[in-house]
Amino acid sequence: MPVELKDLIAWVVLAVGVVGQFFHLKGRVALIEARQKDLRADLKESLEKIDKKLDHIDRKLDHKADK
Questions:
Q1: pLDDT tens digits for 7-52?
Q2: Using CA atoms, how far apart are residues 16 and 22, in angstroms rounded to an integer?
Q3: CA-CA distance, 49 to 57, in Å (whole number)?
Q4: Which terminus of the chain has a lower count of CB atoms within 10 Å, N or C?
Q5: 7 vs 9: CA distance, rounded Å
Q6: Torsion angle, CA of 31/36/39/44, rounded to 10 degrees?
Q7: ∠ CA(52), CA(36), CA(53), 5° rounding?
Q8: 40 or 67, greater pLDDT
Q9: For residue 53, pLDDT beyond 90
Q10: Measured CA distances, 3 to 12, 13, 17, 18, 57 (Å)
Q11: Would you say the pTM of this structure is higher than 0.85?
C-alpha cells in the first residue's frame, strides 16, 4: 500500500487544521472566562446595591411601624 504525496499533504493539512481550531477555541474560551469574571463582579455589585436599598426601605418601614 503505497503512500502518495497527496495523501501525506492531506494528513498534514488536516493535522494543522485541527491544531489551529484547538488554539482558536482555547482563545475564545479564555475570552469568555474573562468576560464572565467581569460580569460576575458587576452582578455582585448590583446585588449589593439592591440589598442596601432594601435594607433602607426596611428601616424606614420599621421606623414608621414604631410610631
A1: 999 999 999 999 999 999 999 999 999 999 999 999 999 999 999 9
A2: 10
A3: 12
A4: N
A5: 5
A6: -150
A7: 10
A8: 40
A9: yes
A10: 13, 16, 21, 21, 79
A11: no
Q: Is the confidence at residue 67, as pLDDT, over 90?
A: no
Sequential DSSP letters for 16-48: HHHHHHHHHHHHHHHHHHHHHHHHHHHHHHHHH
Q: Which residue is it, cell 482563545?
A: 27
Location of C-alpha cell 467581569 = 38
| Long-range residue pairs from 10-18, CB within 8 A, at least 24 positions apart, any chain | none
